[in-house]
């Protein structure tokens, strides 16, 4: 049998080859069927599942997902992400920066409901290592939290929160593991924080953590400070080195800055004071942060902001170094640019910032669906030069919609990561 990188030609050629070789697909052992399809490139695999029901049934098997994961542990890394509704289904396109191409993933399957395109934004969506965690409950109803793998279509509904609410922060961290030497398993931790609904001030400081190994929610410490200290929909950024989930919000002193939650201890850093960067010599008397979004890139943490000054509006990217400086952190500005175009109503952030490669950040226009890529390895001046661009995708007849939170993360598409925790795995 040919190896995966030796398979060439169109999908039709490959299917003809199968037809010539095998008189009856169903006569083949299941493991042979799975191995044949597992060698197809990702886009051709999806096409094969569309044109032949027998192929589709194979791609639904968990054993096929495992076979595929052995050949390709990671299919691609997608960023930025664009959500849209088409033919009553939720669709996703992501930019594969390594190959400079937009990729279309399969439509989301039941029980994930299709979004209402008449609503400007609806769901809160977090993602990590092949899985999404999303709240798809309607605002008038209780929350509905799901883990979902868009490649395998596997979904797992999390238990209801003890204090029912629609959180403003959802963060998910997936841990990959090996089982039986060759199967990728997963465990995950989901953190939900706050509530932005009117009349839910008592819930706006609540923190809950779901550990898939334990299979239950655990209450964390309340957010320090006033009610609604966290009032921006976001996914936060997890700092692996310190074990902290960082979020943008109002600190205990009332200023806007970074709040820190210790995931293992389930406690907030109450003495943590980390205001936004204020460069020495800045001539602006008052700066309003119209956008403030944390983003992780190559293991480093950045704050992307749209700042309104007295005379101008600008985009800034600042790098945050923890455990350094006299205050326990230092900011370094790596990029400043004038905001491009006229500013409209801020119903949804017109610009977001996403990682697109090693030490590369893209300032992405969510309306035009295009972006400019910058190198952020140095300090301001070095990082000011553009390093490429992200063209807009062809969305055909799809109706665009936005998640409640700016999607500031890259999504690694993986078949082998299960939305349902698998026991008996050793972390890697």
Automatic annotation (TrEMBL):
**Which parts of the sequence belong to the F-box domain?**
22-71
InterPro entries for the chain: F-box-like_dom_sf (IPR036047), F-box_dom (IPR001810), Gal_Oxase/kelch_b-propeller (IPR011043), Kelch-typ_b-propeller (IPR015915), SCF_F-box_component (IPR050796)
Record-linked SMART domains: FBOX
Per the record, the domain of life is: Eukaryota
Protein name, please?
F-box domain-containing protein
Q: Which PROSITE patterns match?
A: FBOX (PS50181)
Q: Record's Gene3D superfamilies?
A: 1.20.1280.50, Kelch-type beta propeller
According to its UniProt record, what is one Pfam family this protein matches?
F-box
Q: Provide the transmembrane region boundaries.
A: none
